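Quick bug: Peptidase M50 domain-containing protein output formatted oddly.
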Amino acid sequence: MRKVLTYGFAFIVICTLGTGCVRILRSMPFSVARLKKEVMGILLFAIFYILIIPICVVLHEVGHGLGVVLSSGARASIYIGKFNEKENKKNFHIGRLDFHIQWSYFGCCYSAGDLKKYQELAFFIGGPLMSLILSLISFWLWSITSDGVFHSLFQGITMFSITQFLITAIPFKYPNWMGSYSGFSSDGLQLLKILRSK
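Here's what came back:
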């Protein structure tokens, strides 16, 4: 990645230093400003998929963990990537939240031990609630920033987190095309099952 950026930067410098190259660039249907905008768009896209989506997934799972930790004395294990201790060792902990993090687009949270009904409700509400809060904060930041990188970034975070909220809050079983989540019940469906139980 560094070589690609270095070569790209070197190309831009060489082209802008030579007057002949500048004339050629001016005669082409794109400008340096447009090229810069396109490069920024590609970088923003990469940052979004490499960092932002996994961070949103972590925050969603932290919401589940906080639901357990705040309503009980139990510990919560947050997994991003593989869902088992053998393949995904604990990286660190914050209070009673244990983090097992590998770079990934999917995660889960669980708590050992028996939880009372209201604690289970807090657990399953926590994730979608965190996604909803994140989407509201990013929407506010999107609305107060002018056009540019941060405006686009907050727009993307808003769209992803509101989608994440809806997909997890709507009660249904995840279909096969959802990869690692395939066959699992959404948080909304888990909540319905708890509310219907005695």
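Actually, after a second look the formatting is fine. The chain is about 65% helix and 10% strand. Closing.
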